[in-house]
Amino acid sequence: MADNLSDVVQAALTGAPFTTRELAEESGLSYDVLRSWRSGRRRATAMSARRLAEGLEARGRRLLALAREIQKQTGRV
Hints:
This protein is an all-alpha fold. The chain has a single domain, classed as 434 Repressor (Amino-terminal Domain). Helix content is 77%, strand content 0%. It has helices at 2-15, 20-27, 31-39, 46-73. Helix 1 crosses helix 3, helix 2 (20-27) crosses helix 3 and helix 2 (20-27) packs across helix 4 (46-73). The radius of gyration is 15 Å and the shape is elongated. The chain starts with a helix and ends with a helix.
């Protein structure tokens, strides 16, 4: 399971549509930790991965709210 978790974390960090610094701030993790996960030098623990997931989820909620507001403003609701 650890390898699978590491793969998912690495994919989230390399494919995220925002900076690693932003995600570090939003998840309460350090930039250096996220960078080492992204490069594969270190692996995330389950607890740290949950913090990352919380940061990603918070960002997703904000993006979804913005998308809905744009749709509302353009009459596409």
